[in-house]
Amino acid sequence: MIQAVYKGREIEMELHQLTHGYWKCDYTVIRHPDRAETIHHGDEEFPTMDLASEFALREARRAIDHAR
User: Does the pTM exceed 0.90?
Assistant: First the structure.
């Protein structure tokens, strides 16, 4: 589990290696203090773990920006 904070919201990312060696990353945006969660299951596949996590973090930040 990887965690980050962006504009006061917590982002949790979970990486999954697929059977054919590619990676996906799910992310959850957590809004405090009521701890409301928005979960997004990764639908993009990447050849490396780093690319998958970078993409998920970028998408989570974009979701936070659009939710404001």
Answer: no
